[in-house]
């Protein structure tokens, strides 16, 4: 029988390191009352740019639990109840760690053994093949209603949350690029018309498989995913495209690292074999080509998603990260690739 997570009446100040640690200590002792409060060890993780994450353990670091404190204002665009349900559903099928506790502004869950991938490790064969296997398994999970993709309603929601005007300095940066709400709204609408006619399947998707959310365990040679706050029904190719965009990194974004067609086709062949339960030799080249085209077209939607998301964060978040610049980088890449990716079509037979 599935154990229900503990409900803890506590709010943690994630912006203060001491209060974050004390809050994590309180949660850990609720989950593990046998632990001694004076012998606990802590590690603050910094891979995320919206939430605060801290690990707590007593003796063995691999037995640590993770306490995640939600970022300021993130409840404006993330359904926390849906996130908790996602984790519970995914845990049952081996795609997520166990949810241990829920508190007022965050959750506590089990540690996933391994290390986050990097721009270097993600292209190493055992790692990317492990990702294809895990993503195929994830996409076969029955995670609620998959009749309607969340992608464009979510982007529109982000667009609506962007303020009409930022402060003078930031507004000037946007106007220099002509990234107005009206212009972005038209791009979103036009791209939606283009992508929704492709016939791409809708599955339960992670929607945020950035490199820090892929955990590679060298011992078991297995890839796992973490952080399911954006999990929802979506276009299957979008989840793949979004992952490929993340090859560029976050802190120092370099789109020269976006995977080549050759790499993508090998990756897609492995993924489709796992997803359809076939051998790689049974995956038709035409099928791979179709998914390659879908994936790169949906890569454009990924830029619009995270670009609008970043502009919202620029207005609401207190985290020390230049969200406005990150949004500009995503829109710059969208416009740089738009003609090329929308122009992709199947080879003449």
Automatic annotation (TrEMBL):
<keyword id="KW-0444">Lipid biosynthesis</keyword>
<keyword id="KW-0594">Phospholipid biosynthesis</keyword>
<dbReference type="GO" id="GO:0005737">
    <property type="term" value="C:cytoplasm"/>
</dbReference>
<keyword id="KW-1208">Phospholipid metabolism</keyword>
<comment type="similarity">
    <text>Belongs to the choline/ethanolamine kinase family.</text>
</comment>
<dbReference type="Pfam" id="PF01633">
    <property type="entry name" value="Choline_kinase"/>
</dbReference>
<dbReference type="GO" id="GO:0006646">
    <property type="term" value="P:phosphatidylethanolamine biosynthetic process"/>
</dbReference>
<comment type="pathway">
    <text>Phospholipid metabolism; phosphatidylethanolamine biosynthesis; phosphatidylethanolamine from ethanolamine: step 1/3.</text>
</comment>
<keyword id="KW-0443">Lipid metabolism</keyword>
<dbReference type="InterPro" id="IPR011009">
    <property type="entry name" value="Kinase-like_dom_sf"/>
</dbReference>
<protein>
    <recommendedName>
        <fullName>ethanolamine kinase</fullName>
        <ecNumber>2.7.1.82</ecNumber>
    </recommendedName>
</protein>
<dbReference type="GO" id="GO:0004305">
    <property type="term" value="F:ethanolamine kinase activity"/>
</dbReference>
